[in-house]
Amino acid sequence: MRSVTWPGALMALAERVDGRPKLEGRALYAADAVPRPHLFAGVVPAPAAPAAVTVDPVPARRMPGVVVVLTPSDLAARHRDARWCASPHGGPKETCMLAAHARYAGEPVAAVVAKSRAELRAALAAVGVRATAGPQPAPSVLTEVAYGAELDEFETALAACERIYAHRYEIGPSPFGFIEPVAIGAAWDGTGVCQIWSCAQSPALALPEVARIIGVPAGQVRWHPTYVGGGFGGKDQISYEPLAAVLSSACGGRPVLLELSRAETTGCWPKRNPATIDLRTGVDRTGRILAREVILTIDAGADHGHSPDVADNGAALSAALYPAPVTRTVGRTVSSAVLPSGGFRGYGGTEALYGVEASLDEIALDLGIDPVDIRLRNALSAGGTDVARQTAVPSFGIAECLRRGAETFGWSAARSRPGDGGRLRRGVGVAALIDTSSPAQGPGRPDHATVACRLDAGRFVIEVAAAEIGTGSHTVFAVLADRVLGRYGLPIEVEQADPRTFPGDSGTYGSRSCYVLGNAVTSAATALRQMIEAQLALSSAGEAGGTADRPVRNLDTLGLLRAEGTCSASDAGLVAGAQFAEVLVDTWTGAVTVERVCSVHDVGSLIDRERAMGQVFGGVTQGIGLALTETLFTGPGGVPGSKGFLDHLVPTALDAASVTAVFVEDEAGGPARGLGEAPVMAVAPAIANAIADAVGVRLRALPMTSERVLDAIEAMDTQQPAGGLAEPCPAPASPRSLSPG
Amino acid sequence: MGEGWVDVDGIRRAVGVSDAKPLARWLRDDLAATQVKVGCGEGACGACTVLLDGVPVPSCLVPLARARGRQVSTIRAVLESERGGRVAEAFAARSALQCGFCTPGFVVTVTYLLGRGLPLTPGELLAELSGHLCRCTGYQQILLAAADALGDLAGGPDGAG
Amino acid sequence: MTGSAADGPLLATLARTAEATRWHRPGSLTEAAALMARGATPVGGGTLVMSEAFDDVPGPYLDLRGVIPNGWHGDRVGAMTTLSALLQMTEGRWPAIAEAVRATANPGVRRLATIGGTIAARLAGCDLAAPLAAYGALVISVGADGAACETPFIEFWCGARGPCLITEVVLGPPRPGAYRRYGGRCGPAPALAGVAGVAGAGGIELWAGAVADRPLRLTGRPLADGDMREDLRCSARHRLRLVRAFIAEVTSVLLEYPGG
C-alpha cells in the first residue's frame, strides 16, 4: 500500500502523505479492500456469562443464502482448542475462536456466513442459543506489580507527615469509539496461502500468532496492509482473524468479510479500562510530598489482554512523576465476568493521572498553595531518576511546560478573577502529565524497530511495518527521510510493508512512532545516502562532486538500492506535559462546558507541527469525552446495554473546546519524543480540578455527568445551611399567576 | 411505481428488488462504491453522507426504494465539481484529517454548504456539522478548513470561528 | 439444506422472508390503509426502519410517499413533511416546535425523517411531543376503514386511535413558545428531559417531554420523582431537576414576550 507521493526537498510539509487518498475516498480500509464479490460473516454473542452455551445451528442452516454455520463442535479440534492472548504484545492465552463456555456476555459462540448482509442478519437471529449461567465469580486479582518502597516503609514515613490525605478516584468503562467499525476479512488462494485484511494496529506482531492458530507457517499468511479508521489502542487486538480464516476455508477459500455492527463494536468489543485509583499522600505544610502511595486497580474484565501491561505502565508512570522520598506505587488487575478491557491511549497513564492529579489538587487547595506551584515543587526534573525503571532521566521539561502553560493560559489572572454568583460558574484547573515514547521497559526489555529505505525507479520509498492509524506517523517518516535525502530532489513515498518483512514490529503502539520508528527511519535514510554517495563516487570519475548545499543530480545510473535502519530504545523516553482547562458549570442542570484548554507538551524536537497540533486537538477532545460524557451501559447480568453512538456520547464539534497547543523543545536538539497518547492523558483531571474551582465540589468518578455534578452540588449545599450556591434554580411559579400583558 | 435505476455519480445503475436495503449498503456491497463509508448505521456519525438530489443525507438511513429515479453523488462526484475541489484543497491545507474515515462525509456536507450560498455564523456552521463525528482531529482543523472553503459565507477568509 | 422432508418449512421460510422485505407502493390512501390493516409497516422517512439503533422493524413495508401529503396542506402540515422543512415552516411562528426540531437528531437525519413518522414512532426521547401537546396540536389520521379522524395530540400519542395512518397535523394559530432540553452533551443526543411552554390567553401551557412514556402536562400539577422514567442514562430524580430548570427558563423566556 502506497501513500501519495510527496515531492522531496521540502523541509516544511503542508499536506500529510496520505491526505489525498483519504479525502478522495480512495484510501482502503479493511472492509474496502476485501475482494468483491465476498461472503458476509457474523458472530452470535453469548447472551449471559459465565455460562455453558449450547447452540442449535439447524434453523439457521436452512435459511436462504446461508453458506456455513459454525459452532464450537464444528471446528477441527486444533481450532476449537486454540487459545491465544488477545493482546499482540503477549500474555496468558485465554481467547478462543468460538466459546462453549462463555466468559462474558457478548463473547462469540457461533458464526454464520451468508451470501448477503440481509441473509446473514436473518440467519444470525435464527441460531438457537441457550446459556446455562453459572454463579458470578468474585472478582479476583490477576496480576500485581509494585514499584518503589515497601509497604511498611511507606506507612512508617506516612505516619510521620504533618498532613496526611487519603483519596479514591474511579473511572467507569466506555467504548473506544473509533469511527471505523471492526472489520476483518480472509480468503485462501489456490496455493494454500491465507490472505488477511484487518483493522488491527499491529499486523507484524499479530501475523505469526494468527498463523500458529490457523495452523500454517507464517510464510503462508499474506496480511494485506490497509488504513485503520482510528484505533486509540482499541484495535490493538488479535481477534477475528483466525475465525475469518477458518470460515473462508469452510467456504472453499472464498473471500469472507466479518464486520461488526456499531452495536457489536460498542458492546461486544474490548472497552476502555475501568479503573480505581487509591492514593495516600503525606506532605509537609509547604506542600512538599514526603510519602506517597498510588494503587492503580484496572478491571480487566474476563480476559488478561492488555490489562496487566496497562496497570504496570500506570504504576510506573505514577511513581516517576513525583519522586517523593518514599514513593510506592502498585499496578493491579482484577478480573470480572464481563467484557474484556483493552489498552486505551495512555495505557494506564491516563487512568492513573486522573487520580494522581486530582488528588494533588485537593491537597493544594487544602494547604492554600497554587496548584501549579505544588507541581513545580514536587515533579520529576532533568537529571533525576525514574523511580520505577531505575534509569536516569536526562530530560523532563515539566517545569517549562507548567510555566509556559500558565503564561499562555493566563493562569494567575483566571484564578484571581472574582467568582461569579449566577447560574453559570466559571473555573480553571491544571494537571501535569507524564508519558513514555516507547514501550521499552529498561535495558532488559528494549523496543526495537527496523525499517528500510530504498531508491527505486527515481524515487525513495520508506518501508515500515507499522500501520498509519491516523496519527500522521507516515508523514513524520517522510519528513525525517527528507532531512537526510532531500538534497537529491526526488519524491519520497511511505509504503506499509508486508508484515513479514519486519517481523516482531510492535506496530503503532505506545507513542513509539517518532521515538523508535522515526529514529529507525533516520538511520535507514542515512545508510541509504552513504550507499548512494559511495556508488556515485565510484561511477563519477571526472564529475565534480556535490557539496552539502548543492543537490547532487542524476541518480538514474544507480539501480535499485536498499538500506535498513534499526533503532533500539532501552529507555522509555519519558515525556512531560501540562494541561490547563477552563470550564463553565451550569448549576441548574449540572451540565459542564469546556471553554478552552491549553495543552503543553515537551516533545524534544518537533518534526511536523501540523500533525502534532492535530494530535493535541484530537487527544484533548477525546479527553473531554472521557471526562464528561462517555460511558458503557451494562444491563443485568453484564449484558451490553449500549448500542451505538446514541448511547456512547463522544464529543461532537459542539462539545469541543478551543484548544491551544504549545510545544516545548530541547534547545540541545534532543530526539523527537512521542506525542500520540499524551494529549488525552491529563484532560480529565484538569477538568475535574476546574469544576472544583468553579463550584467548590470534587467529583471523584468519571464521567462527570450532569447528574453527578448536580448530586455533588446538592450534597455540598445541604452541608451548608446558609446555601452553598447563590441563586439555585427558582421554584416553578404557577402558570395561572402569569397573566398576559 | 419506482424507477428501476439510481443515478450514482452520473451513471444510472440498475436496482433489483432490494427496496428495503439501506442505500449505503447497496452502494458498498452491490456497486463496490467503497468511497462511501459506514460508521454506525444510525445516522449519528455522518461518515456515509452522500448528496441525494444535491442535499446531504446519511445514506445508511435511506431505503433504496427512496433513491429510485434520483441522483446520488458520492465524494467522487462531489470532488469533480469546482466547489468540491476547493473544499478538498482547504482540508488538505489545514491538515483537517487523520484516520480519514469521517473525511469524505465532512467534505460532502461542506461542499453542499458552499453551494447553498447562505451565510453561516460560527454557531450555525457547528450545527450544520453536528451530524459528523470525528474521533481523531478534535474538529478544530476541520472547522478552520470549512471556514476557509466557505470564505465570505463564514465571515471572511480567516473564518470567524 | 437436506432432502424433501425439510422442504415444507423451508419454503415457508422463503415465503416469509420474501414477504418480510416486500416494499408496497400503494396508489391511493385507501389502498395504503388497507395494506396497513393487513399488517404492513408504514414508512415515513424510513429512518426508523433503516436505523440499526432500534430493533429490526419487520416488513412488509408500506411506502407512504405520494399518498400522504408533504408540506403545507391548506393550513395543515402534511405528515410526510420532513423535519428540515418543518423547521422552516415553524421558525418564528411556532417557536417551541422549531426549537424542538433543531434539537432532534442532526441536520442530515432531519432531511429524511418526517413529522408523521416521528409521531408514530413514539420514541421515549422524542423532543417534538411536548411542544405539539403544548400547542394543542391535532392529529388527522385515517383508519383501516379509510375514515379520517381528528384526535388531540396527547390522546393520539397515548394510543387512543389504534392502527391508523397519520395524514396531517394541525398546529393551530401561531403563538409564542419556547422549548428547552438536555441530552447529556452539547451536541445532538436523545433528550433526557425537555420542557415546552406556549403562551396563550389562559396563561402559559407547560409540558414536560422525554421524561415519561408520554408528555406530562405541568400546568397546575405538582411534579414528583415517580412521574419520571428511570433508566441507565439518567435517574428519575435528575430528570425532575432538569425539568425544574427548564420550567424556569421557558417561563422566563415567555414572560419577555410582548403580549404574554
Count the DSSP helices of chain B.
7
Overall mean pLDDT of chain C stands at 91
The largest β sheet of chain C comes out as: 5 strands, antiparallel
> In percent terms, what proportion of residues of chain C is strand?
15-25%
List keywords for this structure.
heterotrimer; A: 741 residues; alpha+beta; Aldehyde Oxidoreductase, domain 4; Aldehyde Oxidoreductase, domain 3; 3 domains; seven-stranded mixed β-sheet; six-stranded mixed β-sheet; 20 helices; 29% helix; 25% strand; globular; disordered N terminus; disordered C terminus; C: 260 residues; Enolase-like, domain 1; five-stranded antiparallel β-sheet; four-stranded antiparallel β-sheet; 10 helices; 12 strands
Task: Please provide a written account of the structure.
- The complex is a heterotrimer of chains A (741), B (161) and C (260).
- The termini of chain A are far apart.
- Chain A is an alpha+beta fold and 741 residues long.
- In chain A, a hairpin with a 5-residue loop joins strand 9 and strand 10 (194-198).
- Residues 1-12, 541-545, 721-728 and 732-741 of chain A have low confidence and may be disordered.
- Chain A folds into three domains: 19-28 and 441-538 and 554-569, Aldehyde oxidase/xanthine dehydrogenase, molybdopterin binding domain (Aldehyde Oxidoreductase, domain 4); 38-135 and 180-229 and 235-267, Aldehyde Oxidoreductase, domain 3 (Alpha-Beta Complex); 275-437 and 572-719, Aldehyde oxidase/xanthine dehydrogenase, molybdopterin binding domain (Aldehyde Oxidoreductase, domain 4).
- Chain A is globular, with a radius of gyration of 27 Å.
- Chain B is 39% helix and 12% strand.
- With 161 residues, chain B is of the alpha+beta class.
- Chain B has helices at residues 23-30, 64-67, 75-80, 82-93, 103-116, 122-128, 140-150; strands at 5-8, 11-14, 49-52, 55-58, 71-73.
- Chain B folds into two domains: 5-74, Roll (Ubiquitin-like (UB roll)); 81-154, DNA polymerase, domain 1 (Orthogonal Bundle), CATH 1.10.150.120.
- The N and C termini of chain B lie far apart (47 Å).
- In chain B, a hairpin with a 2-residue loop joins strand 3 (49-52) and strand 4 (55-58).
- Chain C is an alpha+beta fold and 260 residues long.
- Chain C has ten helices and twelve strands.
- Chain C has helices at 7-20, 29-37, 47-50, 83-90, 95-103, 107-110, 115-121, 129-134, 153-157, 236-255; strands at residues 23-24, 41-43, 61-63, 72-73, 76-78, 138-143, 148-152, 164-170, 177-182, 193-200, 203-209, 216-217.
- In chain C, strand 11 (203-209) and strand 12 form a beta hairpin.
- In chain C, helix 4 (83-90) packs antiparallel against helix 5 (95-103).
- Chain C is globular.
- Chains A and B meet through helix 1 and helix 17 of A and helix 1, helix 3, helix 4, helix 5 and helix 7 of B.
